[in-house]
Structures are given as C-alpha cells and as structure tokens.
C-alpha cells in the first residue's frame, strides 16, 4: 500500500454497478485504486450505509469500513445495531459523526434544538467508540457566519466534547477550520485530513506547513471535491494520489517520503 484514502463514499449511487443508474463502475473504481497501491476506507453516513459497507469490504484486501451516523442524520441512530457492526474486524473506526452547523435542520425544529440533538448523538458515538476501543472519524463544519457574535465554532464545541468524553483518538476529516481550531485539535492529540480542495484553494497552505506531519492524513471524500486535474468530475479513491502530491509540494518535501508517512499515520491511527 503506497497511498491511502481514509475517507470516501464508494457505496454512493455515483458508482452503482447497474448500468442504468449512475456511472456503473464501482468495481472498476476500486480496482483502479488498488492497482495504483491505494488503500480504501469507506465511511458510512447513516444506519443503512453502515450495514452496506461492512458487507462491501468483507473479504477485500486493503479496504475497510467506518460505521456511524452523519450529524445531519442525527434523528436516526441505533446504538446497539452500530455496536454489533463496530465489532467486525474490518470496521476500523466510528463515524462520520460530529457537529454540522452549516446545513439547516428540519423546518419543524428550532436551530438550538437541532444543535442540541447533534451534540447528544455525537456524545453517543464517542461512548460507542470508547466501548469498542476504536477511533473516531469526525465531520465538523462551522455555520455560514461563524464570526458573528451570535454564533459559535463547531470545532471548538467538538473539541470540548472530546475533552470531556473521548478515551480514543479522533480525526477531523475535511479540515476547514481556523488557526485557533487547528491549535486546539493538536493540543488534544487529534489529527486532521485534507481533500482535493487543497489542489485548487490556497486557504490551508500555511496550516499544512505548520501541522506536525504525524497528525496529517489524506482523503478524497469521494464522490465529492475531485482534485486538479479532475476538478468538476466525479471523484474516486485513486485521486487521493493528487492530494498526497499537493501536501508534499506545499511542505517542500519528496512525494515518496510524504506518501509513506501518511500511510504510516493511517496504519497507526486505525490499527490496520
């Protein structure tokens, strides 16, 4: 394994093998990645996909699953069912869970109640991770105007929850926080991962240079945010190579060295 995509959604309809739906090349996309030495971790976003990906990764080399409920799906959470899935040896973490203050909640619930529900379910994910002794894959996204006096940082609130409840490591996927957020994340021993966004946006160059190299991992979040030179197309695990190349370029280090370090980081974090 030369590279690893620690966060993608290869089970999405975008890869359906039925030729009448989507592109229909899930198996081909997996093969393209493996042929290039890319390991794949597929991350669930609800109860149904949690069951689906555990079945999908069964018997596949260098392919693993993460089970949990995305914060925008917080109303649908079953602790005992997730626990059974989480005990499978091919499941390497719990998630993607966390706090999403960007997307509005259901129209029949106040925003304050929606955020409170997200926190409640996030804590339950943390408790599950503690119980099964597997790390956390986090989705954390600030509101549209986090700098407003009336709003708060989802990152800061997530860090506070981890400080109080977590006994396992955590990774902040698709990191898009501030310098302060990054500092707090590093202080609690958590890690961050970057997507193809870093190949066409310069917002995070300084953070990529500053963060300890043993706290960075690579991901695609496929089928979203394809990196340059595939921008505008459907993303896939193979394209994580472009993310690794860009991290190496920004840090001014050899690609092979960075690729090896990122794989080692993932192996240590997920115990694979």
List the helices and strands and how they pair.
Layout: E1 3-8, H1 26-35, E2 38-43, H2 47-57, E3 63-67, H3 79-86, E4 91-100, H4 111-132, E5 136-141, H5 154-165, E6 170-172, H6 179-187, E7 191-194, H7 205-210, E8 216-218, H8 240-251, H9 255-270
Parallel strand pairs: 1-2, 2-3, 3-4, 4-5, 5-6, 6-7, 7-8
Structural write-up:
This protein is of the alpha/beta class. The protein has one domain: Metal-dependent hydrolases (TIM Barrel, Alpha-Beta Barrel), CATH 3.20.20.140. The chain is built from nine helices and eight strands. It has helices at 26-35, 47-57, 79-86, 111-132, 154-165, 179-187, 205-210, 240-251, 255-270, and strands at 3-8, 38-43, 63-67, 91-100, 136-141, 170-172, 191-194, 216-218. Strands 1-2-3-4-5-6-7-8 form an eight-stranded parallel β-sheet. Helix 7 links the parallel strand 7 (191-194) and strand 8. Helix 3 (79-86) runs parallel beside helix 4 and helix 4 (111-132) packs parallel to helix 5 (154-165). The longest helix has 22 residues, at 111-132. The chain is globular. The model has no long low-confidence stretch (mean pLDDT 93).
């Amino acid at each position: 394994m030369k590279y690893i995509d620690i966060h993608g959604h290869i089970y999405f309809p975008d890869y359906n093998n039925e030729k009448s739906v989507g592109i229909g090349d899930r198996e081909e996309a997996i093969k393209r990645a493996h042929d290039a030495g890319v390991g794949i971790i597929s991350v669930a976003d609800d109860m149904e996909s949690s069951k689906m990906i555990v079945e999908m990764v069964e018997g596949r080399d260098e392919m693993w699953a993460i089970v949990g409920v995305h914060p925008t799906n917080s109303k649908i959470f079953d602790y005992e069912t997730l626990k059974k899935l989480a005990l499978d040896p091919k499941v390497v973490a719990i998630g993607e869970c966390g706090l999403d203050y960007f997307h509005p909640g259901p129209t029949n619930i106040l925003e304050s109640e929606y955020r409170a529900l997200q926190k409640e379910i996030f804590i339950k994910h943390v408790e599950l991770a503690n119980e099964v002794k597997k790390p956390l894959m986090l989705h954390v996204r600030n509101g549209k105007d986090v700098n407003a006096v009336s709003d708060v940082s989802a990152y800061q609130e997530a860090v506070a929850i981890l400080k109080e409840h977590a006994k396992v490591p955590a990774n902040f996927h698709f990191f898009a926080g501030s310098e302060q957020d990054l500092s707090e994340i590093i202080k609690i021993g958590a890690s961050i991962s970057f997507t193809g966004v870093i190949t066409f946006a310069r917002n995070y160059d300084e953070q990529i240079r500053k963060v300890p190299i043993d706290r960075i991992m690579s991901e695609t979040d496929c089928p979203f945010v394809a990196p340059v030179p595939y921008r505008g197309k459907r993303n896939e695990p193979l394209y994580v190579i472009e993310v690794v190349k860009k991290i190496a370029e920004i840090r001014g280090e050899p690609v092979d060295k960075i690729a090896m370090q990122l794989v080692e980081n993932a192996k240590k974090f997920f115990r694979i």
